Amino acid sequence: MRKALRIVALGVAAAILPGMAAGSSAPVKPQRILSMNQCTDLLVLQLVPKARIAGVTYLARDGAQALFPGAATGIPINYGTPEDIIRFRPDLILTGDFSLAVTRRLAKEVGAPIVEVKSARTFDDVRRSLRQVGAAVGEPDRAERLIRQMDIRLAGLAARPSARPVRVVAWDGGATVPGTETFANHIFQAAGALNIAAQPGGVFTGFDVERLLQANPEALLYGGGARPLVQNDESRHRVIRRIFAGRRIGYPEVAFNCGLPQSAKAAVDLRRQLDALPSRPQAGR
Amino acid sequence: MSRTLPMSLLAVVVLALAAGASLFLGRVNIGPHQILDGLFSSDVNLARLVVLELRLPRTVLAVLVGAALGLSGAVLQGLLRNPLAEPGLLGVSSGAALGAVVSIYFSLATAFSLATPLLGLVGALGAGALTFALGRGGTLSLILSGSAVSGLMAAFLAMALNFAPNPYAAFEMSIWMLGSLSQKSWDHVLLAGPFIVAGVAVLSTLGRAIDALALGEQQAESLGIDLDRTRVLALVGVGLAVGAATSVTGSIGFIGLIAPHLVRPFVGYQPSRTMLPSALFGAALLLLADIGTRVLHTSSELRLGVITSLIGTPFFFWLVVRLRRMAP
């Protein structure tokens, strides 16, 4: 209850602050929104019509392609640099966890409020950032609708807990494997999976192929679809291909890195794929 | 030959010990008798998989790549009569790196799995051909065109990083360039092995020529050495061996520079006598460095190229100090 109150308070604060910064009494919906972070790109694309978006980052199209194809086409792109503010002359700026001092100074000069959206680690964070951005762009109702859709999906997952957690690891060559303090880990848990790379305090860690064979998880998850796959041939070691044949599950990486309503759908999809896994083979032991 | 033999024998012993250790050491601690049991048991087990599918191809590749680098270094230092010559000098390593980075840039590895090393090989051969086309006719022009080609390839590499389609691609490119033998499979050995062996075979015919060259270019010519042919063969040999090596492992510095210097004082400073021990010591050094990457437990993998550079640079200082002491 306390948490819910805090979220509401945050939402209210987020709703009021941008309006105050713009210096207007009547709530005017921003018409030239500039998003300077991939995650805020994907939120704003779902909250306001294209015509009101002045620019999204160069990464928006990759992300949109994976989740809602075509949503970002035709919108000018920026590279998250302070100069872009001068170029786009926005009336609202959305950034990630922090903004550069020079960005803030230039934003002040063009009179655009900056909304910093903290990156998500949990679905609570997704609700918070949806409400924050929804309030900032003047579409709180739309944000609430997206949250409801997300919550229905999550409730569906929670209502049907898996008998035992499926041991998985997100392994794509092993250089950067999401650990405990990641949103990906939270989604794995929601989907009924146990991330074997999750160690206390770990964010992204290395996970050697020998350790992978020893731990012998039931499924190997790999990011895909969200970005043009740049995995090199390392993740296709022949022994991995052989041992994990039929047990490799692709996931839309952007929905695991950014807190989005689609992250709940990704969790549902992951659960379905985990349920469809063949019964546990004993290879590698 | 009499003075080469003890040094080569020593190198073989070191190499054999390192190779043995390489099969028994890794991120996952499997006891020696467990490994032996696993190897001789007929069913699929962890020890067998780890040793036969991960550690053995890695060891074989380390030996091949290290030998290619060591031998190329010895031949180039003899051919160019310069103690600082190293396999990257002719532009083939940066050509290989560029090819590999291009394949990461365009995500070609998704289309077919060995795209990165294959394109690396193409890049190495292309860079070698360019060096040859520009630098025909003299040792100095060969060195100069080699550094020009290296510079050009480095410029393209920087450009690829600059225009990386997304941060992941930039990360993968820079990580690839640090060099690694981890997760190399028999596929990589089969791809690079034939080229490395061919390159090593070409290079090993150059012993007499680099001995004669130690006397100076004119003296060598008067002894019946065809300098143009020697330079072409050296370029082809280095291009094949180092190009193939770099295209599967990424850039690995200093091995080709150090190995010849390590053995030279013990073989009477005769260039041809450094060749075999250099190749063997190059292999042993690379293998030891690779074992280092496995036994040093860091949160993310310490890349092979980083270790060889960390060990190589102090050696470089030592070389400078020693040269200064020996100079009149």
Describe the structure in brief:
The complex is a heterodimer of chains A (285) and B (328). Chain A is α/β, with parallel strands linked by helices.
Write up what this structure looks like:
The complex is a heterodimer of chains A (285) and B (328). The radius of gyration of chain A is 20 Å and the shape is elongated. Chain A has 285 residues and is of the alpha/beta class. In chain A, helix 1 runs parallel beside helix 6 (123-137) and helix 7 packs parallel to helix 12. The termini of chain A are far apart. Chain A is 46% helix and 14% strand. In chain A, strand 10 (219-224), helix 10 and strand 11 form a beta-alpha-beta unit. The relative contact order of chain A is 0.13. Chain A has helices at residues 2-22, 38-47, 60-67, 83-88, 101-110, 123-137, 140-159, 183-190, 209-215, 238-243, 253-257, 261-275; strands at residues 33-35, 53-57, 77-78, 92-95, 114-116, 166-170, 177-178, 193-195, 204-205, 219-224, 248-252. Chain A has 12 helices and 11 strands. The model of chain B has no long low-confidence stretch (mean pLDDT 87). Chain B is mainly alpha-helical and 328 residues long. Chain B is globular, with a radius of gyration of 20 Å. In chain B, helix 1 packs antiparallel against helix 3 (46-79). At the A-B interface, helix 9 and helix 10 of A face helix 3, helix 5 and helix 7 of B.
Topology:
The complex is a heterodimer of chains A (285) and B (328).
Chain A: H1 2-22, E1 33-35, H2 38-47, E2 53-57, H3 60-67, E3 77-78, H4 83-88, E4 92-95, H5 101-110, E5 114-116, H6 123-137, H7 140-159, E6 166-170, E7 177-178, H8 183-190, E8 193-195, E9 204-205, H9 209-215, E10 219-224, H10 238-243, E11 248-252, H11 253-257, H12 261-275
Parallel strand pairs in A: 1-2, 1-4, 2-3, 4-5, 6-8, 6-10, 10-11
Antiparallel strand pairs in A: 7-9
Helix pairs in contact in A: 1-6, 2-6, 6-7, 7-12
Chain B: H1 4-24, H2 32-40, H3 46-79, H4 92-105, H5 115-135, H6 139-162, H7 167-177, H8 186-203, H9 207-213, H10 217-222, H11 227-249, H12 255-263, H13 271-295, H14 304-326
